[in-house]
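Student: I would love a firmer grasp of how sequence relates to backbone shape in proteins. Thank you; the sequence and its tokens follow:
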Amino acid sequence: MTTVHIVDDDIQTAELLCAVIENIDLDCQTFTEAKQFLHTSVENNDVILLDLNMPDVDGIEVIRTLAKNNCQARLVLISGHDKSVLHSAEQLARARSLNFVASFTKPIEIEKLQNFLKQTSLNISASKTTRPDADVMPSVEELQHAITCRELLLHYQPKIDICTGKLTGVEALVRWQHPERGLIYPNLFISLAEENNLIGELTALVISMSMEQSRNWQDNGLTTQISVNVSADNITSLSLPEQLTNMLSNNRLDPHMLTLEVTESALMSELVTSLDILTRLRMKGFGLSIDDFGTGYSSLSQLHRIPFTELKIDQSFIMSMSDDIESRAIVKTCILLGHELNMKVVAEGVETGEALRKLNTLGCDIAQGYYISRPIPAQELLEWTHARKPY
């Protein structure tokens, strides 16, 4: 049973929230002193409604203690402060690896809170019946076998021109079709590949499969660019430009058909070698995209050093920009910066029509996300393209 812990020094607010929560058949505990709450046992299935502004021990101190105790209960922040303070507290909770799920400003919209808690409770119940990731963690030997025997497959997420709605490209996303465990998603095997020197083989296979698929699409009347994610290990391999050029030649493709997506963190390990390889890739005609832009610590210096052709705004900013003024400002600034540096700007994580319309207003070039399409198999992409009508 999910218990909601209300931590708020305002007795009337705490009692009101408790009544509202009990009205939707959830257990509730109220704490008007943070110290008392911090001595209470909290389960991972529980929800914590934490007010930031409290005497004696405030909400930020509570966040620090929860992190120290490795608490993974769902954390909801509430505050009467201005949104910038609440936003900073959200970022702190995430940085401390807490399970932050939402925030509400006072006065709280009761119906909105009830709907949120109902959905959260349903999600918790569903997760209890789902086989935990630990049960399906593959071994290094299994992964090596999967790469050698090509048990991997690709799904493709469409990227569209925001102004016209036309397909501009796809991002190739790898999956593992395990013969016994079924479809395994990359969060369970990418780090395994990186930690055991298999990421080079894995990426080479993904790129090879992407190029084969691109050739197949062209033979069936669809010509579109493919983006592939590469890791830090990939961009420190001095032979990468020649390997990719040979793959393209074997599939009779032009280099501009392939864009390599690189995260900021991947560039930090060996900057000089990365600069060498990425510059040569651009000289050979490949596209370069800086992925998850805005989440690293040296974004501007990376843009200055490396000849990127595309800037991808991290989905966390896109998904929160409708009700977060800071996120909206960051998105707007990224778009302006990308255009000033002659790059196409891509918004990932577009999940609503409202977000797409806002991006169009801000002048963003390209969008991808579940509102447009989930990642789909190659054959479905052909069907999706034929069925889709541009604006």
Remarks:
- Residues 255 and 286 are 5 Å apart (CA to CA).
- DSSP finds 16 helices and 14 strands in the chain.
- The mean pLDDT is 86.
